[in-house]
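Table S2 (text version). Query chain:
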Amino acid sequence: MPRPLESFSQNRWVAGTGPATATFNAVNGETMAFVGSDGLNFAQMADYARTIGGPALRALTFHQRAKMLKSMAEAILARKEELYELSYATGATRTDSWIDIEGGSGTLHAYAAKGRRELPDGHILVDGEPEALSKRGSFIGQHIYTPLQGFALHINAFNFPVWGMLEKLAPTLLAGVPAIVKPASATAYLAEAAFRILVEAQILPEGAVQLVAGGVGDLFDHLTGQDVVSFTGSAATAQKLQSHPVIARESVRFVSERDSLNASILGPDAAPGTPEFDLFVREVVREMTTKAGQKCTAIRRAFVPQNMLAAAQDALKMQLAKVVVGDPRLAEVTMGALASMDQLRDVRAKVAQLAQESQLVFGDPNHVDAKGDNGNGAFMSPILLRQDEPWKAQHVHDVEPFGPVATLMPYTDLADAVALANRGMGSLALSLFTYDSAIARAFILGTAAFHGRIVIIDRDCARESTGHGSPLPMLVHGGPGRAGGGEELGGMRGVKHYMQRSALQGSPRILSAIVERQLPGAPKREADVHPFRLRFGELTIGTTLHTQSRTITLADIEHFAQFTGDHFYAHMDEVAAAASPIFGGRVAHGYLVLAFAAGLFVDPAPGPVLANFGLENLRFTKPVKPDDSIKVALTVREKSQRNPQNGEVKWHVEVTNQDGDLVASYELLTLNAI
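Corresponding structure-token output:
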């Protein structure tokens, strides 16, 4: 029985009070739900996010928020079959829904892992190294990121109601910013179901998320410069929202990811019979038919060398003829329905525009024999068009049918292929099929500025490639120009979209305390006991161990050379080393200096230090010559708890000679017991 969808406002589910819009099953036309947000107080929702959700999230550390994302991912997976069942009504096959449901959960998992691994167990994200602002070092600068103190308004598209919601929530919540989610009405019943799973799991602090089932009312009127609008959808809607006077007046961050005329290029070396030719054909067909072509990254324009046009057309038609359209519940069906009858009508109208200039070579936009169709389904045949003179055509570079439609076109040479790819005026995704690295490099130099993500597919990577149209959590999703000029995902890049970068200035002591990291020039506390005897919780940032010194002899250098096999001339050939403008005589191996330094500061007995798992930022700054002495200053630079049993400690190591000159420095990473 169809029901009104509810919004989740101020920690309670609320039904709209006014007229509602019906949403329909894409397969059989039955009414699924009614969507309407009349009666919601959007000013109160905005205030609730800022005053309740924001402080609760900001009180958590990055690692606590990362654990929260992991729990969200597990909650979705635990009830995924409920979502799969509902997803059939959107016209999606099981494979399509896997991208949406488990892909969304996977994005949460990825951000949870990256947050634990790449962010500190604290509240401030340090950006880069400190800047020296004074001669004596008493005044420095340090860039940091902190969470915005507003909320994020997520306006999502209809095509991926679960993934589209979760891929925005992951970086937003990890940054410490609450979100108000507005799903597209056509598939809002699936987004609402996924949202209910998250609410019922009781993972999130109060106010962290709210849901608007329906329009956003006057919510834009209540935005401030601390808020972010993240939009996915059509260029026309994006332009309308972005031109709202409050966006300009308050300098509201507006992240736009718009549908674009993505292209795929068959390289001039990829003739019929090569693996790359077959991979190109397979990928174009897959992108046309996955989610019935309703992907913002789908291939809309396929370019091939002029002399391969006929062969490519024949190969594409052969593969498209194998596509079975129909009810996605049926095992033999490989392409389901469009999301709605409105969407079907829109795609048909766009195909008619394209057909004014291009030749229809496969499919009928007005008829398809769909398996299990009762006459009310939004089914459509895959449509392949051909345009022989792409530079004389207009619509193919400007009109996007958001469905199973692509146009095949020729190019004359690589420069022409580059220009045609860029003629789309900015895209989310571009792909090139070639086995020639010189072609790939020239192509990238010509196209990268116009495309947010470029994938080069060949026989070597095809088996493991994620393909042309798959946004990944660790890579940016977005593009310039027609694609909206925004970015999502991209690992920690996506998190920073919801944070403010600030430049701090002050004394090393004060700034070190703020960022919880020992900065150059900050006071150090001499260790009372060897710091390797202290557990993670007992270590204090700035605690320093100064070691005794050790003299490095010529015999040490020669023994190290024999032991390791490193006979580089600077260590073993006095004449050649003396002639060097850098060394001026024989010097110790850099790694000998490191080994002796470790011997000076390591406490050998079993204790809280569980393992040394790496060195970072190693620099050899001055040669160490025979009979020089070295000593070490070992300082606790920063700490980050990884789990209840242990934490990571980063130690700053400075190795100096008998004159106090720095000869080597690096960061030592250890795992310490809590």
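Notes on Table S2: The longest strand covers residues 628-641. The chain has a mean pLDDT of 94.
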